[in-house]
Specification:
Blueprint: H1 2-50, H2 76-92, E1 96-103, E2 108-116, H3 118-127, E3 132-135, E4 141-146, H4 152-157, E5 158-162, E6 167-172, E7 180-186, H5 189-195, H6 198-206, E8 208-210, H7 213-224
Parallel strand pairs: 1-4
Antiparallel strand pairs: 1-2, 3-4, 5-6, 5-8, 6-7
Amino acid sequence: MQYSNLMKRLKKQFRSAKRRITLALLILLVGFLVYVENVSKSGMAEQGALGVFSSLDMGKASSWGAMDKFSDPLSPDSRVISEETLHAVVQSGTSRKAYVKKNYICSEETQLIGTMSVNGILQFAKIHPEFEIAFDSTGGIVFLEHIADLSPKCKQNAFFGIDKLGNLNLYDGAPYEDHVIRTFFQLNVGHLKSSLPEEDWAKLVTGIRISDLAEFNSVLSTFSDYSDVPGRQKQ
């Protein structure tokens, strides 16, 4: 009787110990799987951070390791151009003249930064991830910034007007000076003259002064209704 009771207690303890061992093994297994997953995610994150730059020669630029993958508003095509340009810069290992080119809605402005080393170019690119990067015709580096606004110069002296061919143009100064910044589209002059009061037509001929983006968009939108080819703009 005592033996029977002892065996029952031993079997009960064995089953309890077995459950504890099974639970311990399960915990170890879960812990191992979590560890593997974290290592995998870490490796993927590191690979993503390097992007296409991982194929570059790290020895040619000591600062390259500090560069993260671009996190910017550039289009995919612009990003590829920028990455390929920086790749070529690192491979060459030479200093270059560098420029900042601001591409406004109405015009472009270019400013020389100076001669920059490879590390300097990479650091500037890192500080300004919104810039598109390309070579100019002389092998210099151009950091191109797209600005959805009028340039300071346009805000000071830009006019909309019409030329002798009926094109709607943006001018630097009054239209009679004929300094065309940009041509947008050809107007249906007959329809326009018959629709506008004489004083409004006269304003278009002599020039409609604009000083900000809202005025620019308003004038362009108004006269697009009188375009010979609606919605089409000339570059």
